[in-house]
Amino acid sequence: MTTPDMRTTFAAVASELLDADRRVAVVLADISTDRFEDAARRHPDRVINVGIREPLMVSVAGGLALTGMRPIAHSYAPFLIERSFEQIKLDLSHQDASAVLVSVGASYDWTEGGRTHQAPGDVALIDTLPGWAIHVPGHADEVAELLRSAVRDSRSAYIRLSTRSNAEARPAATSGALDVVRRGERAVVVAVGPMLDPVLRATADLDVSVAYAATVRPFDLAGLRQLAEVTARGVVDVVLVEPYLAGTSSRLVAEALVDRPHRLLPLGVGRIELRRYGTPEDHDALYGLDPAGLRRSIVDFLDGSSVQVA
Amino acid sequence: MTTSELGLDYADLPRLLTMMTGDEKHDASATSTLDVLWVLYDRVLRVSPATIDDPTRDRFLLSKGHGPMAYYAVLAAKGFFPTEWLPRFGALDSALGYHPDRVLIPGVEISSGSLGHGLPLGVGMALGLRAQGLTSPRVVVLVGDAELDEGTNHEAIAYAGAVGLGNLTTVVVDNQSATHGWPGGIASRFSVNGWTTATVDGRDHDALEDALLAPVTSADRRQPHVVVAVVEPKFG
User: What pTM does this model have?
Assistant: First the structure.
């Protein structure tokens, strides 16, 4: 039996939430409507497809929330977050209204599609707004719990789905805490969402702790401090590996370790627009996010001579 | 009928405006909406200071947000907040900014100021009321004719017409300030998308009342409604 992908899981769980809670509404802009056909038949007033009008989709979510409903708005990441950003800022945050935004496409799930369908800056954009939760599942089996708890919660949340996936789910991470996968002495490597498997391969023979995050806002500052405690030998070395714009969470590592001497290597998608097609794996390599590239960066950072190789 | 609980009336509005501006002469952006707002709160909207959290209240959304003095004067006259708030307009610790903030002002349904947000938000509210089986409340959104330039309004106009949001009314206060104008008339932008329309003198209280109440008295509310309230040109 193959595990359904994240988008399929999202549609199934959102449909269950529509059945279970009369406050829940799903707002769409023609994308994924095929996955909500049955739910739309059962709940014609709460599965709302506004057509190809993403800013309207986000504003409608805001208006629904202002009448006491719990909207979930969903589209491709660039259209949901970047095209609609002022709507997110004003029609949700500034209105003191909240919604759950769920994207697909991630940084470059569809490399053949080019820049128009890529959104490596989405998390950084949402991070300019106060009080949002941001979830980056690394496996489809983490999506259900992240979505259910986000809808149960009263604040706004952004859930970033991807076709990229780790081989195994880590359900513990859906609590929002850093999930310690391996312990080591030399450094702390934090892998976000689908970056876990490449990080584990890149660091298999390095004496480092690896922690997994499926939730990056709020960032588990206490968990990171605790890990830094274990591995502290004077200066704490931290490597942050995010599947979106490099450095997006650097400020939070700095905040967690404000009173600790530390060095930070932030890895992620570069700011260069590649203007290349090919596969997502090709782009991983171009951005240095494949296991080999990650390993090169991490070993250089840790200064090869001091790294224990098993 | 035309007197609020506080005993303040239309004739008191210039005095309330002056409390904010300190100026006896008020500019066009402050007063173009004054009559529409008065008629709405005095004769049309089913909302009062006692019902600002009632799920069945009518919702009024001031979309354009600019020149909110008329809005504040009407809300104060109707008792949503004390008239004593008015002289602190724009001050650091005032609830009343140059654009309204719903979190700070009782009875204000949306925070506005950036153009093109009220109508899309109003569409969401109309859908939310409908989804909850609240069939009596209306959503009334006030926009300016220049504000219609913003593309988000056109997303909202097309969609609301297509799905027949009969509980949504837009009031366009037309002081002919759109840079490129609306050849063929503003109402035509709505009617082509299935809205019912009325174009009236924006200073004529009885005409405004009739136009604004038309959707309520109509048995068929499967179409959204627009009232174009024409006032003197901004640069005329």
Answer: 0.96
Q: Which of A26, A124, A40 is nearest to A75 (CA)?
A: A26
Q: How many domains does chain B have?
A: 1
CA distance A20 to chain B (A): 15
CA distance A62 to A74: 13
* Nearest CA distance, A108 vs chain B (angstrom): 28
| Cα first-last separation, chain B | 34
| Contact call for A87 and B124, based on CB within 8 A | no
Are the beta carbons of B132 and A69 separated by less than 8 Å?
Answer: yes
Cα B141 versus chain centre, distance: 5
Residues A109, A220: one domain?
no
Q: Give A210's contacts (C-beta < 8 A, 6+ positions apart).
A: A180, A181, A182, A184, A189, A191, A196, A199, A200, A203
Looking up tokens 């109003």, which residue turns up?
B122
Of B121, B131, B134, the CB nearest to A59: B121
| Dist CA B160 CA B169 (whole Å) | 10
- DSSP letters along A82-101, please? IITHHHIIIIIIITT---EE
A57, A89 contact by CB (below 8 A):
no
- Same domain? For A193 and A127 the reply is no
> B156: which chain A residues are within 8 Å (Cβ-Cβ)?
56, 59
The DSSP symbol for B233 reads: -
> Does residue A265 fall inside a structural domain?
yes
* Residues A212 and A274 occupy one common structural domain: yes
**CB–CB of A64 and B55 under 8 A?**
no
From first to last of its 236 residues, chain B has per-residue pLDDT tens of 444 546 799 999 999 999 998 776 766 666 899 999 999 999 999 999 999 999 999 999 999 988 899 999 999 999 999 999 999 999 999 999 999 999 999 999 999 999 999 999 999 999 999 999 999 999 999 999 999 999 999 999 999 999 999 999 999 999 999 999 999 999 999 999 999 999 999 999 999 999 999 987 776 689 999 999 999 997 54
How many residues appear in chain A? 310
Separation of alpha carbons A132 and B97, rounded Å: 26
Window 143-182 of B: residues touching A by CB (8 A cutoff) are: 151-152, 155-156, 158-159, 162
Is residue B127 within 8 angstroms of chain A, CB to CB?
yes
Radius of gyration over every alpha carbon of chain B, rounded to an integer in angstroms:
17
Instruction: Give residues 61 to 100 of B whose Cβ lies within 8 Å of A.
Output: none
Structural domain including B18 reads 10-230
Q: Which of B152, B154, B167, B193 to mutate to test the interface with A (most CBs of A within 10 A)?
A: B152
Total domains in chain A come to 2
Tell whether omega for the bond before A218 is within 30 degrees of 0, i.e. cis. yes
- Asked if B114's CB is within 8 angstroms of A90's CB, the reply is yes
Binary contact (A90, B123; C-beta < 8 A) = no
In this structure, are A107 and A239 located in the same domain?
no
- In angstroms, the Cα distances linking A140 to A30, A89, A168, A236 are 23, 28, 9, 33
